[in-house]
Amino acid sequence: MVILALNCGSSSVKYQLFDWERKEVVAKGMVERVIIGDSFIMHEVPGRETYRKDSECPDHKIAIDLIIKTLTDPEQGVLTEIGEISAVGHRVVHGGEMFTRSVLIDEKVLDAVKEVQHLAPLHNPPNIAGIEAAQAVLPDVPHVAIFDTAFHQTMPEHAYLYPLPYEWYEKFGVRRYGFHGTSHLYVSKRAAVLLGKKPADCNIITMHIGNGVSHCAIRGGVSVDTSMGLTPLEGAVMGTRCGDIDPAIPAFMMQKENLSAKEIDSILNKKSGVLGITGRYTDRRDVIENAANGDKRCKVALDIEAYRLKKYIGTYMAALGRLDAVVFTAGVGEMGWPIRERTLEGLEWLGIKLDRERNKSAMTRKRETLITTDDSPVKVYVIPTDEELVFTEDVVAILNGTYTDHMQFDYSFARADFVRK
User: Fold this and answer.
1) Per-residue pLDDT tens over the stretch 260-317
2) Catalytic residue (one of 19, 140, 148, 405)
3) Could you give the CA distance from residue 403 to residue 397 in angstroms, rounded to a whole number?
4) Fewer CB atoms near the end CB (10 Å): N or C, the chain?
């Protein structure tokens, strides 16, 4: 069984091909600059040099068609024919309140995703376009939706409701939803294995830190709070998103600069965060390097990010009570040891004893690493995330009729004998 995982953005399509019998990734890559012009595909096969080809993709259908042609290409491909693909898993950012787990896509499901696209206007439309495009290119295989928001549907009412007019929630679905659900699910299951406990016996804080950033408080294996809200804009400082701010600031700046709602939304999502502070950078490697060379604004950006990460750990510890572990994951979480160090400094009184050498050595996206001392009451791990593996296992289980709630489902990565390839 061969599963194709697709993640369609507004101007890109990421893909991964997974051979279920061999339990390994056979190809992955991305089509970039979809719609906007000068499109190209980057195609990776283990043991081969990365392949690049320029090819105009004015829409997602053509981009997905390019992916299929590349996967079946006699020289660059890994498949002899398109019929070898058994199913397609699609990342869908926002599922509203309707979806609490992955589902087989039919007309009713697709209509429901379209009904909540106003809640994620930057993400759901390209997700929908990708689904429809893939269904056109691969009409004879099952398609499955995997929702970013599903993992967080266990949050209690007092965590997901905002102190706003209640009719906003009733009429428009204004509430906290949370995102990066597959990542939080994966690393929390792996952390439970490293702790030698069942997920139901663990209280964990997971910190997904990339260009987008979200944190999750997990009690007894399920999400009880998360930092992103109605949209992915709320929460921690991100690459280009502001995260938590005074809600009066947008209206204030709209008046001062005569900005429209669309313009202020674009500024908060695309010109704020680390980019807004430094004026130049979103990549934390650039920020760390320039801060070390004396760039004051880069140093301030690191200080702000680490300070807010530290506050989220304290906040979620208060919410959870007993805490077993903190997990750092995603690009910055896995590679940014200076940010982890700044975040964890001074938390010994909360039971977190950082081992600085272990933390510095945790600079790989392939190895799970303990970065606290052996006697630290609260363990801190760096765990590389694998959202695509969650996609794949959900798809296979749905096809086999064995899929259920994640607390009952037997994910391979939740077993003690799991080995990451």
Assistant:
1) 999 999 999 999 999 999 999 988 899 999 999 999 999 999 999 999 999 999 999 9
2) 148
3) 5
4) C
Return the exposure string of 36-74: e unless at least 16 CB atoms fall within 10 Å of the residue's CB, then b: eeebebebebeeeeebeeeeebeebbbbbbbbbbbbbee
- Residue 367 to residue 358: CA distance in whole angstroms: 12
Q: Are strands 85-92 and 40-44 parallel, antiparallel or unpaired?
A: unpaired
Burial environment of residue 279 by CB neighbours within 10 A (0 to 12, 13 to 18, 19 or more): exposed
Tell me the pTM.
0.92
At position 394, the amino acid (one-letter code) is D
Our answer to whether residue 106 is catalytic in this structure is: no
Please tell me the distance from the alpha carbon of residue 392 to that of residue 398, in angstroms, as a whole number: 10
Q: Which residues contact 403 (CB under 8 A, 6 or more apart)?
A: 101, 102, 394, 397, 409
CA 415, distance to chain mean position in Å, is 22
Cα Rg of the chain, angstroms: 21
Cα atoms in the 13 Å half-sphere on the side-chain side of 349: 2
Contact between residue 256 and residue 249 where contact means Cβ atoms under 8 Å apart: no
